[in-house]
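Figure S7 source data.
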Amino acid sequence: MKILAIETSCDETAISIVDARGGFAHPTFTILGNQLLSQASMHAKYGGVFPNLAKREHSKNILPLCILALKEAKLFEKSKKTLNINEKERAFYKELLTREHDIIEPFIKLLSQTKKPKIDAVAVTAGPGLEPALWVGINFAKALSHAWNVPLLPINHMEGHIVASLLQKGSSKKEIILPKITFPALALLISGGHTELVLMKDRMKYKKIGSTRDDAIGEAFDKVARMMNFPYPGGPHISKLAKTIKDGSSRFPLPRPMLHSNDFDFSFSGIKTAVLYTIKKIPRLTPKMKAEIANEFELAVTEVLIKKTLGAAQKYKVRTILIGGGVSANERIRNTFTKKITAEFPNIKLYLPTKDLSTDNALMIATSAYFRSLSNKKGAKNTKNIRAKGNLSL
Ligand code: KG4
Ligand code: ZN
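Tokens for the predicted KG4 complex:
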């Protein structure tokens, strides 16, 4: 089946079209179209994602991006004669896209001039994320699903990040396959909005066993980077700086928050404040000092992630660990987990997303949607009920 998936939960507008087959036994995807537009540079001066700007940019870009994806997939075909979109239909789109009013006329024009593409379902991130941003994707997805008369599948962004950790290159560049994993599995989700440990006794069965009590880890990376005058998103800057430090000793020791707490929760607000105090005490912050602080920050958060994740893995006797979310692009985190698990837990298999699939993308939504469609063939019964849910949990 061909799925068109939309992701607009944060600052990336992304649309993917995949051809999915093989069922749960041999899931295989051919990437037909994959488009992504990042707004990161626009949010840089605000030090984080500014929700109304994100919404405006998604509204501006979603339709052109969708056309690009359809063209890439060779599913964009002009109709020979202009089709009539009657008043009732027009009124429907006008109401649905009230808050994305820039799209209404070009969308109706597109419908009247193109053939219905061979798409079997539309999928969209319904949450968690920034609600104004999520709504753009949802309303647009509703419009497409109505126009093409195909089911609409609401997808959880965090499930997307979990599935992303399993996407592997198949026999060609455009083909993606998923390995068969052994349960129980443990997912460590580390992104700009989340830090969670999720136990999976079976596929698509999730139980949150730990989460952050304050800031998410990606947020901490971003804030620490900002303290050193690096623009949003800060994670990659911290990572690059830390790499320049070779030895482990630090002139600027930082705490390992909740390292010894008897649970699987996290906290990253204290370490952020500790970095702030460290910086305040230094009269002239040199590039070398910044690098040392970045390195110590990475060491500290990695140590906590390792301790909590492997503690949970032992307690629940897991056979598989999946790491997902933007922060899983971090090389120190990737390498430390890989080395530790290979050396000390040879019975556990670790899966990490490729770097381009660590951060937000629509391929993870398209692939998750296939699994959702296998368990719920009809899609949403009533698309009216699909709403943006900023705090949607797994
Ligand atoms: O998953 P994601 O793209 O968006 C959310 O769902 O939040 O994650 C974005 C987060 C940002 O905080 C960004 O700084 C962080 O991922 N990030 C990194 C790296 N690349 C992205 N953090 C640390 N090291 C990286 N290399
Ligand atoms: Zn994300």
